Each structure stands twice: as structure tokens, then as C-alpha cells.
Amino acid sequence: MASLPPGLVRVAGSGLLLRLRVTPKSSSNAVEGLSRQADGTVSLQIRVTAQPDKGKANKAVIQTLARTLGVAKSQLAIASGATSRQKTVRIDGETQLALDALQDHLKTCKP
Q1: How confident is the model over 42-94, as pLDDT tens digits?
Q2: Under a CB-based contact definition with an 8 Å cutoff, are residues 93 and 75 in contact?
Q3: d(CA 64, CA 43)
Q4: Would you give the DSSP letter of residue 21?
Q5: How many Å is the Cα radius of gyration of the chain?
Q6: Most buried by CB count within 10 Å: which residue of 8, 45, 49, 87?
Q7: Domains in the chain, please, with CATH?
Q8: Does this model's pTM top 0.85?
């Protein structure tokens, strides 16, 4: 976690918690990179095409993040913020592989 910004990822038991900023109703599903909020916190910016209706956007977030991190959808869960743009996702299982994939992906994102 050394090259990731402080607060983006936290250890929680045997898993990790990842802070997200979600934009629903976008033109595509994508992990866009890092986003700094007004309070100074850093989040992973994710855009999804789904509307925030009956959990559709949350499901799209899990699918998009699983594809980007190279993990099964069952290893990811919304830990907090189910009805908010600011979310925390829990990552279980092969957390080091997910972190490596996240770091690799962020290298390809625009700053």
C-alpha cells in the first residue's frame, strides 16, 4: 500500500476497505483514477452507466471494480454508503493481488 495515497485503502480484519467516489448514469463503466474531495480525502473515482435505482448502480460498481482488480465479484461488498456517491467497498480473499492490480491500473489513468 506504500504507493497508494493515505486513507484510500485500510486494513480491516482479513480484508481491505477501499474508499470510492461513484458517478452513476455515466456514458461508460470505468475506474477513472483518483479523486480528491473538498475535505482532502482521496477516493477511487468510478463511473457506471446504471442509474442509482434499487441497487443497480451498486451492482455495476461491484462488477466494474471486480473486472479492474481481477477478483471475483463475490470477494467485493459495499461496506458503507449504499445510497451515497461516497462508498466504502470491502475486499476479501486475495487482497495483495487486488492491490497490485489497482496500482497497475492507476499507472494508466490520467492524473
Answers
A1: 999 999 999 999 999 999 999 999 999 999 999 999 999 999 999 999 999 88
A2: yes
A3: 16
A4: E
A5: 13
A6: 87
A7: 9-108 (3.30.1200.10)
A8: yes
